[in-house]
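Fig. S4 source data, part A: sequence.
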Amino acid sequence: MHLLVIQRILGILLMVFSLAMLPPLFVSFLYLNITFEAFFYSFAIILISGIVLWLPVKNQKQELRVRDGFLVVALFWTTLSLFGAIPFILSPDPSISITDAIFESFSGLTTTGSTVLTGIDYLPESIRFYRQQLQWLGGMGIIVLAVAIMPMLGIGGMQLYRAETPGPVKDTKITPRITETAKALWYIYLSLTVLCALGYWLGGMSLFDAIGHSFSTVAIGGFSTHDASMGYYIDKPMVEVVAIIFMFLSGINFALHFTAWRHRSPVYYLLDSEFRAYVVILLLVALITVFYLYNENVFPGFDRALLHGVFQTVSIGTTSGFTTHQYHLWPGFLPVLLLFVSFVGACAWSTGGGMKVIRFLLLIKQGMREITRIIHPNAVIPIKLGGKPVSPRIIDAIWGFFSAYVAVFAIMLLILMMTGLDQVTAFSAVAATINNLGPGLGEVGVTYASLTNTAKWILCFSMLLGRLEIFTLLVLLTPAFWRR
């Protein structure tokens, strides 16, 4: 384990992250907010902390091993989220506890979208902007961004990239060089953000809201600059349409975006098994939601039921977490159905959460194969994806992930219930955080402010597990990882 190299990397990454304090610092100056000093001191604290870590080991330049990569990723996401809470702690508005500040920071950077804040409309513009920016940085993954610049700093990036990139097939690269891969992903991410902001602005948002919401939409985060979330623009249906389009696009595999763009052909989307499953799942759930809302007369007219139903399906299904209406109060089975869709989540190599569509698809194929084996015990039935057999090792890894997911989920559910939460609130809180969704059911349908500090710390861990897809974090808890 190259601990000194890891210290050097953390120092560099903290110094880079300190620059994230400058945009909200500028916003506070522009709007004459009382938060200027909070962001200035945050910038100084994070920068100095990075220098203190980096300076003693600045000459330590060794190639990272895979184990080093996992440790750097886990340490940095944890450290980043803790340091990201400093502006919330120092700011006079909002006046929140350290636990709440850390919860908000974890939620932002992991693109979960759960919040403990109320009265968001009246917060200083710099704080509102900072929350959105946290999600934008976390969306693509600060590590993937760092991979693009690490070679210039004398740090190898492949090990970090493998530890950070979501999905069951982590070694697939869309360009020959890892740096070029990270840059390609970043360009796609940036392009979607600009187009989304432009769409929101043309749809009726102010420029400030358009930029802020584009950050959280493309990041599939769910933070909003208003308490009512997208419901603030209930009288501007084009805003909802733009949100649906870009939530859907951001939930697609970014490597697939790159392939389609490079070949200038949308046919590559249709050839992808995961994309087809992604569309089918969202379409089926949207149809059920729309017709149930219309049948129950939740909204006046089919057009409103259609817009709200499709919006909420895409928002929850991609784990964005935006709301135009309090979906947790919808009648019948709809709230639970939508929450269950978040377990599937978005595609691998997207900014979304959940278990990922490709894992869900392969689990179904595996289940169908076992049913067929009961009828034909001696048959050799390979599992195929896109016409190609899937390695048994990948299937085993997916079953291992699913088992770990269920076990961790059950443990955290029981612990939350021990803190006094009812079953619905505890279940949905774990689901909403481990799937990086945001809003849950029961007490956490709107805000997590009423939870105990113990529950909030557990849910911070749950957000981190979801962002790092469980294994990246759990592997650090095994004796084998630390054994020489």
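Fig. S4 source data, part B ends here. The chain has a mean pLDDT of 90.
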